[in-house]
C-alpha cells in the first residue's frame, strides 16, 4: 500500500466535492454535530496547513492547525491548503522521516499521512452529505482507510474527536464500516 499515493487519491476525492462549495453553503449542518460546513472546512484547511508544516519539520504550532480562515472563497482556501499538503507529503524521502503532530507527539511519517487520509475520506463524506451530494471513494481507498483506522486506538465520546461507534449492517461496504467506526451514521442527512 503506497500511502503517499493513497493521500493523493484522498485529496483528489475531497477536492472534487469541496470545489463546488460557495459562501452561501457555509451555514449548512454537517454530520459533525458541533460544526456547520464553515467550521468543518476551517478544520480541514487548518489540518492541511498543520500537516504540511509538520511534514516540513516545523515545530508544532497549534495556531497553524486551528487558525485557518476561509475568506470570501471557501473552496479556494481549501484547494490552496490541499495543494500545500500534497506537495509536503509527496516530498522525496518523506516516508523516512518522523513528524511531530500536536497532541500525538513524534510519529513515523507513514502514520501521520495515514491520519490525514482517514481525515480526508471521512470529512469528504461529511462535506458531501452537508451539500446533499453523493460521495463514495473508490473501494481500494475506502478499504485502505478502514484498515488504517482499525489499527488506531480511538478515544470516543462527546469531548473527543470520534463519536460513539455506529453499528452498520453485516453486509455494509468497507466505506460504510469506516463511517460507522468513526461514529458516523451512513444514513445521515441534513
What do you see in this structure?
A hairpin with a 3-residue loop joins strand 1 (98-101) and strand 2. The mean pLDDT is 92. Strands 1-2 form a two-stranded antiparallel ribbon. Helix content is 52%, strand content 4%. The N and C termini lie far apart (35 Å). The protein has helices at 3-18, 37-55, 62-66, 74-89, 109-131, 139-150, 174-181; strands spanning 98-101, 105-108. It has 7 helices and 2 strands; from the N terminus they run H-H-H-H-E-E-H-H-H. The protein is mainly alpha-helical.
**Major pleated sheet:** 2 strands, antiparallel
Give, in order, the helices and strands.
Answer: HHHHEEHHH
Strand content: under 5%
**What is the total tally of β strands?**
2
Helix content: 40-55%
Structural shape: globular
Q: Give the termini distance in whole angstroms.
A: 35 Å
Strand order of the largest sheet: 1-2
Quote the average pLDDT.
92
- Report Rg: 16 Å
- Kindly name the structural category: mainly alpha
Unreliable spans are none
Please, how many helices? 7
List the helices and strands and how they pair.
Blueprint (H helix, E strand, L loop, with lengths): L2 H16 L18 H19 L6 H5 L7 H16 L8 E4 L3 E4 H23 L7 H12 L23 H8 L9
Antiparallel strand pairs: 1-2
Helix pairs in contact: 1-4, 1-5, 2-4, 2-5, 5-6, 6-7
Amino acid at each position: 500500500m503506497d500511502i503517499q499515493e493513497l493521500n493523493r487519491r484522498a485529496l483528489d476525492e475531497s477536492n472534487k466535492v469541496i470545489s463546488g462549495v460557495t459562501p452561501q453553503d457555509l451555514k449548512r449542518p454537517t454530520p459533525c454535530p458541533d460544526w456547520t460546513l464553515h467550521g468543518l472546512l476551517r478544520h480541514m484547511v487548518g489540518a492541511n496547513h498543520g500537516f504540511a508544516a509538520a511534514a516540513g519539520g516545523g515545530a508544532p504550532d497549534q495556531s497553524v492547525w486551528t487558525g485557518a480562515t476561509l475568506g470570501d472563497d471557501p473552496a479556494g482556501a481549501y484547494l490552496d491548503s490541499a495543494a500545500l499538503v500534497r506537495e509536503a507529503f509527496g516530498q522525496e524521502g518523506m516516508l523516512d522521516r518522523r513528524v511531530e503532530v500536536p497532541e500525538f507527539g513524534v510519529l513515523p511519517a507513514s502514520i501521520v499521512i495515514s491520519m490525514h487520509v482517514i481525515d480526508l475520506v471521512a470529512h469528504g463524506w461529511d462535506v458531501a452529505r452537508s451539500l446533499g451530494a453523493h460521495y463514495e471513494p473508490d473501494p481500494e481507498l475506502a478499504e485502505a482507510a478502514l484498515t488504517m483506522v482499525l489499527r488506531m486506538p480511538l478515544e470516543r465520546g462527546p469531548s473527543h474527536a470520534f463519536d460513539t461507534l455506529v453499528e452498520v449492517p453485516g453486509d455494509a461496504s468497507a466505506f460504510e464500516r469506516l463511517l460507522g467506526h468513526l461514529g458516523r451514521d451512513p444514513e445521515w442527512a441534513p
